[in-house]
Design brief:
Helix content is about 30%, strand content about 25%. It is an alpha+beta fold. The strands form two sheets. It has a four-stranded antiparallel β-sheet. It has a three-stranded antiparallel β-sheet with strand order 5-6-7. β1 and β2 form a beta hairpin.
């Protein structure tokens, strides 16, 4: 997965001490999710798989620990959470606290995902290396070299691959064809690639 957002906007989140009040986690008792600055650079984002840089803002989704007592916290870059865990991200925003305005700017992404429950399954796009995979929507084969949308599902704190769909099947399967920005977030595309995908989504 290539989350190109962090290659081009690595300085979106200001580190501690630059005027943004990120020192106190944003939380409330009935919403356990949290925004806080990363104390180290060791944690990886569950959405894109990349490290969350030290002192940059991260989002933690807190859920019951499936392997024992207590809670487990799953960490994300905020825009990755908006794309992949929209309901939890929105709950975190509603918890209040002093957050950078850029974080609020991800609300429309999360709102769209919350409105279309299958949309957070989108995990970028790629060309089919063979013609052996079937579309999860129409069950027809996806031709070799055709663009396809990769899907994942959330299972016990991690995203698992769950197949592919044709570009032309996206509207019926996902409930929307407003996908190009979402695809580009997780996939490095040329302008020509993006134009081809956009045409395929509208087909």
């Amino acid at each position: 997965m290539a989350c190109t957002f962090f290659e081009t906007q690595a300085n979106l989140y200001a580190p501690a001490g630059t005027g943004l009040d990120l020192g106190s986690p944003s939380r409330r008792t009935d919403v356990p999710h949290v925004f806080e600055p990363a104390p180290t650079g060791r944690a990886k984002c569950r959405g894109c798989g990349r490290a969350i840089a030290k002192d940059t803002l991260r989002f933690g989704e807190r859920l019951p620990n499936p392997y024992g007592e207590g809670e487990a916290t799953h960490w994300f870059h905020p825009p990755c959470a908006a794309h992949k865990r929209p309901e939890a991200f929105l709950e975190g925003l509603e918890a209040g606290g002093s957050l950078p305005p850029e974080v609020e700017s991800f609300r429309p992404i999360a709102d769209l995902g919350a409105a279309h429950p299958r949309l957070p399954r989108v995990d970028g796009a790629s060309r089919a290396p063979t013609g052996r995979a079937r579309c999860r929507h129409c069950r027809e084969m996806i031709p070799k070299d055709a663009w396809r949308i990769g899907l994942v599902f959330w299972d016990e704190g991690r995203f698992m691959p769950s197949g592919f769909i044709h570009l032309a099947c996206a509207g019926e399967y996902l409930g929307t064809v407003d996908l190009l920005d979402r695809i580009r977030f997780f996939t490095e595309l040329t302008d020509a690639d993006a134009a081809e995908i956009a045409a395929g989504l509208e087909a």
